Amino acid sequence: MQPAVDAADANALYRLLEEEVVPAYYDRDASHVPRRWLAVVKESIRTVGPRFCARRMVKEYAERMYAPALAAKRPTYR
Question: What is the DSSP letter of 76?
């Protein structure tokens, strides 16, 4: 069953590339600017950019890695 799913996924990907992505990239206005492609890029940055910002990554790393490591190494004083 997996080969059929892989083939369907590949076909969907190639269709998307051929019918939407590549034409948007190569379609230029009178100033040779790919307006549709830039709209796609800007929307991608707007929607997924916050998930990949450095501030969020540093905060998450500190919370998941540094804080537990610090707590585990902290000596107990009596």
Answer: P
pTM exceeding the 0.70 threshold for the entire prediction: no
* Rg of the chain (C-alpha set): 23
User: Do residues 37 and 27 make contact, with C-beta atoms less than 8 angstroms apart?
Assistant: yes
Q: Domain map of the chain by residue range?
A: 2-73
CB 34 within 8 A of CB 25: yes
**φ, ψ for residue 11, nearest 5 deg:** -60, -40
Tens digits of residue pLDDT in 49-70: 888 888 888 999 999 998 998 8
Single-letter amino acid code for the residue at 12: A
Query: Alpha-carbon torsion 34, 36, 37, 43, what sign?
Result: positive
Question: Which H or E run includes 29?
Answer: none
Q: Which residue has the tokens 């969907």?
A: 12
What tokens does 41 get?
Answer: 């890029």
